[in-house]
């Protein structure tokens, strides 16, 4: 039935963000024509959190060792928008995309579902 998920990042500079995903993060991709790249993402999982405010969706990349990942990405001139913070359930930071958006990055301390 359902065999995947398609995530869309809206950007003020889509070309720069596509280049970032391709060249900096090294994600494999297909070109659907005219430079319109669609990227293969790492395995994923979805969680549903309660809210009393407006409904929204967020995207976070996950890693096994945040300290090593920060070092590697800093070496590629990636900007971090805030220092890593221990949230209890994981260690969280965010990176700045070239188009101006933020992309969450964390090292989970909870059991993950993406390899089930």
Automatic annotation (TrEMBL):
<dbReference type="InterPro" id="IPR029068">
    <property type="entry name" value="Glyas_Bleomycin-R_OHBP_Dase"/>
</dbReference>
<dbReference type="InterPro" id="IPR037523">
    <property type="entry name" value="VOC_core"/>
</dbReference>
<feature type="domain" description="VOC">
    <location>
        <begin position="3"/>
        <end position="108"/>
    </location>
</feature>
<protein>
    <recommendedName>
        <fullName>VOC domain-containing protein</fullName>
    </recommendedName>
</protein>
């Amino acid at each position: 039935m359902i065999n995947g998920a398609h995530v869309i990042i809206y950007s003020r500079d889509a070309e720069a963000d596509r280049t970032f995903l391709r060249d900096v993060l090294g994600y494999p991709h297909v070109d659907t024509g005219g430079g319109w790249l669609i990227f293969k993402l790492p395995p994923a999982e979805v969680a549903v959190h309660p809210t009393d405010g407006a409904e929204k969706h967020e995207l976070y990349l996950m890693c096994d060792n945040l300290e090593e990942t920060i070092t590697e990405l800093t070496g590629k001139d990636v900007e971090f928008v805030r220092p890593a913070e221990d949230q209890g359930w994981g260690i969280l930071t965010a990176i700045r995309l070239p188009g101006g958006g933020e992309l969450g990055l964390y090292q989970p301390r909870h059991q993950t579902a993406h390899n089930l």
